[in-house]
Amino acid sequence: MSGRLPTVSGLDVAKVLSRDGFKPVRQKGSHLRLVKAGAGELFAVTVPGNQKDLKKGTLMGILQQAGLSKNEFLVLLSA
């Protein structure tokens, strides 16, 4: 897979994260909070749902908080 990130919306990112085991725990306005318990860790991510296209830096920050690499995200996105 290419390491280049596509343009995705916040809702698309939330769907991809749910495929990786993240569960929504709360929503405030348009921001959705997702959590996942890992091996001795708790991953918590906030995804803005109101934006059609997330900026690359925002997407990279979300992936970093989720503990996902670009390639792992791309695989989940194409699944």
TrEMBL record:
**Keywords recorded for this protein, A-Z:** Endonuclease, Hydrolase, Nuclease, RNA-binding, Stress response, Toxin-antitoxin system
Q: Which domain of life is it from?
A: Bacteria
Report the InterPro entries cross-referenced here: HicA_mRNA_interferase, HicA_sf
Q: Which Pfam families match?
A: HicA_toxin
MF terms per GO, please?
A: endonuclease activity; hydrolase activity; mRNA binding
Which family would the database say this protein is a member of?
Belongs to the HicA mRNA interferase family.
Among PANTHER family, the record links this protein to:
ADDICTION MODULE TOXIN, HICA FAMILY, SSR1766 PROTEIN
Protein name stated in the entry: Ycfa-like protein
Q: Which organism is it from?
A: Heliobacterium modesticaldum (strain ATCC 51547 / Ice1)
